[in-house]
Amino acid sequence: MAYIDFLSKIHKSTKRDYLERVCKHDKVECSERAVKFGYDYWDGDRSTGYGGYKYDGRWRTVAEEMVKHYGLGPESRILDVGCGKGFLLYDFTQVIPGCTVAGIDISGYAIENAKEEIKPFIQTANAAKLPFEDKSFDFVYSINVLHNLYIHDLWSALKEKERVCSGNSYLVVETYRNEREKVNLMYWQLTCRAFHTPEEWEWIFDQTGYKGDHSFITFE
Question: Which of 62, 118, 200, 216 has the fewest beta carbons closer than 10 A?
Answer without folding.
Answer: 200
